[in-house]
Specification:
Blueprint (H helix, E strand, L loop, with lengths): L2 H16 L25 E4 L9 E10 L8 E7 L5 E6 L17 H6 L8 E4 L6 E4 L2 H17 L6 E5 L7 H9 L4 E3 L6 H11 L4 E3 L6 E5 L9 H13 L3 E5 L5 H4 L3 E3 L6 H14 L5 H7 L2 H8 L7 H12 L4 H8 L3 H12 L5 E5 L2 H5 L4 H14 L8 E3 L39 H6 L5 E7 L3 H4 L3 H8 L5 E8 L11 E4 L8 E3 L6 E7 L2 H8 L18 H12 L23 H11 L4 H7 L4 H8 L1 E6 L17 E3 L4 E7 L19 E8 L2 E3 L14 H5 L25 E4 L16 H6 L5 E3 L1 H7 L6 E5 L3 E9 L8 E2 L7 E2 L11 E8 L2 E8 L42 E7 L9 E4 H12 L5 H4 L27
Bound molecules: iron/sulfur cluster (SF4).
Amino acid sequence: MSSKKNTRVSAAKAETEARGETHYPGPSGGGLAAYPPKERWDDWVELDSKAWPERVEKHYRLVPTTCFNCESACGLLAYVDRETGEIRKLEGNPEHPGSRGRNCAKGPATLNQIEDPDRILYPLKREGERGSGRWQRVSWDEALSDIAGRISRALREGRQNEVMYHVGRPGEDGFTERVLAAWGVDGHNSHTNICSAAARAGYELWCGIDRPSPDHARAKVIFLVSSHLEAGHYFNPHAQRIVEGRKNGAKLIVVDTRLSNSATHADYWLAPQPGSEAAIHLAIANHVIQTRRYDREFVRRWWNWQEYLAEVRPEAEPTFEAFEQALSREYASYTFELAAAESGVAAETLREVAEVVAGAGTRLSTHTWRSATAGNEGGWQVARTLFLLNALLGAVATEGGTYPNAWNKFVPRPIHVPRHPEKWNELNWPLEYPLGMYEMSFLLPHFLREGRGRLDVYFTRVYNPVWTNPDGFRWIEALTDESKVGLHVALTPTWNETSFFADYVLPMGLASERHDTHSYETQDAQWLGFRQPVQRALRERDGRPVGDTREVNPGEVWEENEFWLDLTWRIDPDGELGIRKFAESKRRPGTKLTLDEYYGYLFESSVPGLPEKAAAEGLAPLDYMRRYGAFEVASDIGPLHEREVPAAELEDVVEDRFGRVYTRAAAPAPANLAPTGAPAGDGEGRRAVGVRVDGKILRGFPTPSGKLEFYSTTLARWGWAEHALPGYIESHVHPSKLAPDQMPLISTFRLPVHIHTRSANAKWLDEIAHTNPLWLHPRDAGRLGLATGDLVRVETEIGHFVVRAWVTEGIRPGVVACSHHMGRWKLAEGDGQRQLMATVALERSGSKWGLRRTRGAAPYASSDPDTARIWWSDVGVHQNLTFPVHPDPISGMHCWHQAVRVRKADPGDRPGDIAVDAEKSTRAFEAWLAKSRPADRHSPDGTRRPSWLIRPVKPTPAAYRLPVK
Ligand code: SF4
């Protein structure tokens, strides 16, 4: 901090103290009293802005909760008017260690969502055919009895695989995964394969942990492959730490084909040809290797180089020196000239950037998520080659380096830990993708079409596959076919394109209307955040108990956790199926578990230090969390891999030839908790406890070798030996694979003020951003005869969409881009969310589908006078409908980038038009499926999937065995 600023802060502090007030000391370190001191949260006074120029005091009670508008889980403070009892605004919670009082625009806009005049307030059941748009209000009791009855029948009849839960934004750490495990159902499905599967694969293969935790604030060099200052993981918490790092002198390198907000702040903005990112990383790595700038000791101690030599170079001496020679040879061909030819970025620029990286030493923080990893075939190598830079420099779990995420988050043990399901669900985990990171969710309609199975009860929760996934028309076909999907239950706080094709639409709470816990890797620390229903917390604080959260929420809006407990109870009312016990109170056996008991137990029993901290304030742990909303469990975690294994754990162990140490006997399967980077096993049920390094047995990494896996034995043994090292795979949109008139389309980037389809009900955000024009470089615009505002037809492999052009130098020539979130639609005027959804007509003739806009957004009368002031009508285009599925054969990631032809629109084209031939999408599915190497032909050990790889709701070891033919 500059001395000038220090002086200002001290003066402000002195003034505050002179008034007899406390200078706020919270984790924000905010200097000036930027936040209400927690001692005054019960009666916080502000002048009413609307009463100006009169000075009218407003008194508030401040109640913490957690934002639900993206995965970052920033803390919020709800300002509840003491007079009316209404939430008047939501701002940052300074007690939250991750977000430290800061939010992005979407946090405060939670208020719009609460007050949205179009929100769903009551349970609805469809009338007529699915998708008819006719609904009747039903009671929760009726809906729950119907759903529970169907699930109960399916479980009793051995049809466990016909129950599926498909989640977009979980917003919690494993509650629902445990509900499914309690039901004995392997039916967890997520959106991971359209989001982060490839990035996860890159990290998992190195560390056994599938996310990074970069320490941006203390870095010397920050290297980002994505737009982290507007939409990255974890957006606001990371963005503020990147800014902090910059203020401390860090250099910022941003690799992004498009000029993102991050790129505008960068010291080096590299805008490469999409898909060439790994080649850039490898050229930098090669420079570090050839100039011998890598951390020799770190590489010697922590890479699995002995395995590499044994498997790949058995003729070599098993010495580190021999490995160094081999390493040098492996990467010598990745010159700056090669990377320049692939990426289009000048070799001299790459050399300069490589020097900056090499100079970072152990203070190199790197991060990639979605973006290039999610766009390209082989995108997982973008993450693997980026982490190679950390692994070379020893910038792993160091100050200013990059940590495995599980070390920087905290997952408490809940009151009940259920069993492992006994049946493997091949609809989610097909044999073709044994190494897929999470479920092959976006292929579901194709699998149902092929007759691989059917669903009796299908939940979508805060998920909108018709809009979000590629190939949305195939989703509509599946969801409207009752022989494929027996009952579709949409759990959602707001209308979306998928809920129109549901049988039940059940209203779920927003950020201030539900419970959850969270912990994310925002810095080298472990914290736990608590989302809670604000009105309930206040009522209980006043000694007025609440039966369930519906009592205090608008209409009959509920929350998922109480819904799941009730449903679980109804599925097995007498306990005969062995399920009810997981929804039962421990305090009062025979009665249903309440959330007060659930969270009371959690905070009391499994969060170290919280009971003591709460007691110091005369509070029970649950009351402490209800009052402050977050707790830091530990800070400065450091390098866990270097910790010595205690002697007591080494009493009966065996060691393999590379020093991996296992329990001698098979260990019981670990509890079915959310993934925490638990130790790997050896495939025979023995648990890995550590790894020998220089004579000591250390914790190591949860990989098969216990080391960082430069060489992946898993890839080699499961049929992908050619990709066992960090390397470069040519993308499906590599220039050599494009026709002369084709260009890559980047469709994955977010806008800073929206999140997928969840923020359309926030009027402030809609006013800022409501459409998604096609980014086009002036050179391409000139070639195509286009100007900003012109209508453009973009032709994909299966159809086309029509959109307006935006000519900008903020994108690489020869590439076009179109953002996420927009092109929202509804089928009838009255339905849905009217601020950001156009009304459309769906047309179908055989396999040909079309979507035409009949009306854009328009002003309307409602309880909110602002809806009469809507001035925008164009809400963009739903481009994802025109994308076929592109499953990466290794990671399973949908590879989003498209090869497209761009031209002036035809005379009859209108903004938002869509045309698709679903037959072509089936052919694309088949072509990509043919690239896979299925487990029944490539498994080295008769299992479906390596047991050590992360997987939500792991089934029993027996279920991992391949079916006997
Ligand atoms: S980054 Fe923004 S949207 Fe995400 S949790 Fe934080 S405040 Fe909410």
